[in-house]
Amino acid sequence: MRQKAGTPKPSAETVIKDIRRATRKQYGAEEKIRVVLEGLRGEESIAALCRREGIAESLYYNWSKEFLEAGKKRLAGDTARAATSDEVKVLRRETRDLKEVVAEQALELRLLKKSMIADGGDDE
Question: What is the pLDDT of residue 6?
Answer without folding.
Answer: 62
